[in-house]
Amino acid sequence: MKNDKKIFILIETILAVLALIVALFMIEEWADTEVRKISVVVQDSDGSRWAAFKYGLEMAASDNDVEVFVVSTGGTLTAEEEKELLETEVENGADGIIVQPVPGSGEEGFLEKINKKVPVIQVESAGDAEGGASDLPVAEPDHYAVGQALAEELKKDFGGSLHGKTIGIFQREEGTEAAKRREAGAKDCIRRAGGEILWTVSGYTGKGGELALPAYPPVDIMLALDDSSLVQAGEAAADKQLHGAVVYGIGNSVEAFYCLDNSYVECLVVPDEFNVGYQSLSAVVQKLDHAYRQEDRLLVSYTVVRRDTLFSEENQNILFSMSQ
Question: Which of 117, 139, 166, 176 could cross-link with 280 by S-S, CB 3.0 to 4.6 Å?
Fold first, then answer.
């Protein structure tokens, strides 16, 4: 009888241990299958310029089995507004952050603090610090090379020399590392080619505070260094408000391609925004999987597009990613 009782207790103990092991396996499996969430904060996130970027995010999220959430931002963010959005996303359980830094006092230090909680990848530009750009990883094109490539195209169209040509340069962004490098690349090339830069404008806010292009002194050539500026210049050219100036620009939206197709813009340099999205999200996942992995600068390419190459296979793929 005593032996039977001992056997019964032993069996009960074994069953309890087995049940505990099964429970632990189930908990571990549940933890492994919990979907990680990556939050994305960029300026004017609903704007068409982000279409290819968001498509890249979606493809990377699918390939890496994570969820991506692009925070809706209705326009230009201040540094303080961006901080509040990022804090909210982390508090709401974001496992990683992708952010387009807003220039502003203390922004970089704040991103470093967020990065201690969850991985942070910057896109489009490294946030400016007083001593230079932020050390956090950034996915972006080589902005200096993009600005230089744009100026090289107009130099090519004018026989390799810009002597006697007047040029106006404008962009919506101001104060970012990206804006500074794009402008420097374009200006260095123009000066070497002998062109005269008559005016440079940056920092206007777009709709509601648009740059009044016709009010500026007439120039032979206008360089638009970002998508919103390019589209605005294209609209002004369509309305014959640019005193005959030829427009060259950097663009990455369907509207930019429309301007090129209708001869309102002579040439486009198109950064690979799809890969900015894809690489930034993939880098966040890599950081989650390998905490000590060190990323630096994830460079993407750019493409020069003309009307006669608009419908090439490569450019149709670019246009497809913009229309998703």
Answer: 139
